[in-house]
Amino acid sequence: MRIDVVTLFPEFVQQSAALGVIGRAQTRGLLELGTWNPRDYASDAYRRVDERPYGGGPGMVMLIEPLRAALAAAQAAAATPAPVVYLSPQGSRLTQARVAQFAQMPRLLLLCGRYEGVDERLLEHAVDEEISLGDFVLSGGELAAAVVLDAVGRLLPGVLNHSESAAQDSFADGLLDCPHYTRPERDALGDVPQVLLSGDHAAIRRWRLKQALGRTWLRRPDLLAERVLDAEQRQLLDEFRRERLAALG
């Protein structure tokens, strides 16, 4: 997969993507990253990329032409056209399901805004989708682009050392992840649950599913409200609730 990012801070995006699994994905040739600075496509001697907004008000608005030229150069870098995603607090909330859809695409082009944003005419004619990380405002789209790069890149085949890791993540199946434990078996903070030491794979699977259902019920009940549980899941969630109430006395 190839992901291109139009940004005023290409070094930030490059350095963020050089670490961890995303860096290894690039080294292995599983993910290709391109960055494009609109300043390189500005037509004036000052390499201006912004101007004051019509109608007055604070801040600056990013100009059409440098962004349009940068987007065109990014699109021309590969034969397959890329959908353009603008990272904006006004966009649709990014979800694991949307990340998984992005990971199926051969290309993705991320547009990072700055200042008061981007001229609306460019957004209307050049952007396919607006994505938000949540109901808050960042100084620019670079942090959001780094998040999208990481979330999408780790789902690409061969990126994670264990293919099942992504499948067991929170939200992968609509539930939060179950608790995880490692050595030592016993510690002053507590012991590892015995079922995980039993070697009984069916019991372990059942325990993990119950914990995932219970944790989702406790922390994100809205996810369960949107989900139709099968008979086993309803039974396990009922067990978790009873055990929880008993533990609380």
UniProtKB/TrEMBL annotation:
InterPro entries: Alpha/beta_knot_MTases, tRNA_m1G_MeTrfase_C_sf, tRNA_m1G_MeTrfase_TrmD, tRNA_m1G_MTases_N, tRNA_MeTrfase_TRMD/TRM10. Keywords: Cytoplasm, Methyltransferase, S-adenosyl-L-methionine, Transferase, tRNA processing. GO terms for biological process: tRNA N1-guanine methylation. Residues 1-225 form the tRNA methyltransferase TRMD/TRM10-type domain. The keyword S-adenosyl-L-methionine applies. It is an enzyme of class 2 (transferase). Belongs to the RNA methyltransferase TrmD family. PANTHER family: TRNA (GUANINE-N(1)-)-METHYLTRANSFERASE. This is tRNA (guanine-N(1)-)-methyltransferase.
